[in-house]
Fold this sequence. Notes:
single chain, alpha/beta, eight-stranded parallel β-sheet, 16 helices, 19 strands, about 25% helix, disordered N terminus, binds calcium ion
Amino acid sequence: MTFxxxxxxxxxWQRAVIYQIYPRSFRDSNGDGIGDLAGIVExxxxxxxxxxxxxxxxxxxxxxxxxDFGYDVANYTDVDPIFGxxxxxxxxxxxxHRRGIHVIIDWIPxxxxxxxxxxxxxxxxxxxxxxxxxxxxxxxxxxSLPNNWLSVFGGPAWTWDQxxxxxxxxxxxxxxxxxxxxxxxxxxxxxxxxxFWLERGVDGFRIDVAHHIMKDPELRDNPPNPHPxxxxxxxxxxxxxxxxxxxxxxxxxxxxxxxxxxxxDSYSVERPRVAVAExxxxxxxxxxxxxxxxxxxxxxxFNFGLLRAPWTAQGVRAVVDxxxxxxxxxxxxxxxxxxxxxxxxxxxxxPARARIAMMLLLTLRGTPTLYYGDELGMRDVPxxxxxVQDPWEQNVPGLGLGRDPQRTPMxxxxxxxxxxxxxxxxxxxxxxxxYELVNVVAERDDQRSMLSxxxxxxxxxxxxxxxxxxxxxxxxxxxxxxxxxxxxxxxQRVLVALNFSGEQQMLHLSEPAHGSVAISTHLxxxxxxxxxxxxxxxxxxxxxxxxE
Length: 548
Ligand code: GLC
Ligand code: CA
């Protein structure tokens, strides 16, 4: 292939592929059945040599009682002993940077753990200096809850505190009290935690439930949801009975993100630092507002459109075209097909379609986030009730909301526990039954495996200016079970043709009429093709280089 590897002016995070690591589940270095930072360090070459990703996003590793597996932070400036220590973190950053891999860490501003010293102080008395760092409210005169707000994880969002006789707000577990971001001291203290990690060399942050940090100061009731069905990409149960108008996304949130951006920019002189943010907002104009009116807020609000797209050529194209239209001029898109909160893509759409999804993810215009194990085609692992770990499943059982199935140990090899931990140790979640077939070693040696497909796509993406930075143009006049698009940079053009059906489909393109297949998702053909009469097999995607 003649892709050229010219260097370019885009910041690293626009060219990057971000690989998400859930530290508990990646690699256990010390034999306690739980993944850790040293395990990630051990696998640095996997990230650089085997995959060649440009950035990792680490889910939380902070000291935590683990009520929500680290999304309940008890100290923002340290490492939980389960995961290691600050020296190991420094080593992780050093090893990553040596290999040209950027490090993005999770930052959880909406809530702390109830064990955080700030909350411990806040709950001591109504006149404690930290009282106003959290959101406290009186009961209504009849003793009932301050308003009708609900916890995402089930039940009311308010918990009564006996000692001081007020309720505190928690958008998630009662062990995750919400911080009060309208208090400037909270912002100052939380921004200090960003500085701590920026000075340790991190390249950016993934901001947890970023749109939740500001609420209606009057604490008004949410209106009922007039539309049956669900609000986001999946049914949340009782939480879907309301429109979440007042318990999140208050416009003041934009002031905070402008200030956060100024902080990041002040550290970006030597190299750009990035803010990626979890924003569950499917109204695309609201979603796009998180880039900032002057592109002065978040670099990349995560785009979760593909998580709820009907998995058809038309459904997926509608998401991509909608996103392309919604991204403000000068802003940069991104795509997500899986993370630690979602059923795995290979389970959602099946293994054959997951190969199409991988080609899609790695060839669209925008920064892809790749969830650990998806490069192997790992699937959700059914968790017997007595082994459930996720508090969401425990609070709201039976709706399929539990997230353990997608958090099981990374499958490294065919040894017991897939090489995640020593043979005589029980991993914190069970390993997939198919691990002897689906693992790094087996797939590395199989030229048609999902891992081989992912590696080749990553390589092609790395060396192609059209694929990393080029424009996106959908191609019309193709069968409605196919999604075909061009990526173009100057005279360099790449055509991506994806057949979402299980049957053969014919393409009859006149312009472009000729090209050369660089890779098929079946990994069994390459070379010149006539696009006026081009057949795609069932569940086949092709990346076709066009003559300049
Ligand atoms: C985000 C995280 C999720 C966590 C929740 C509360 O959605 O991705 O894992 O449970 O926030 O912090
Ligand atoms: Ca361990």
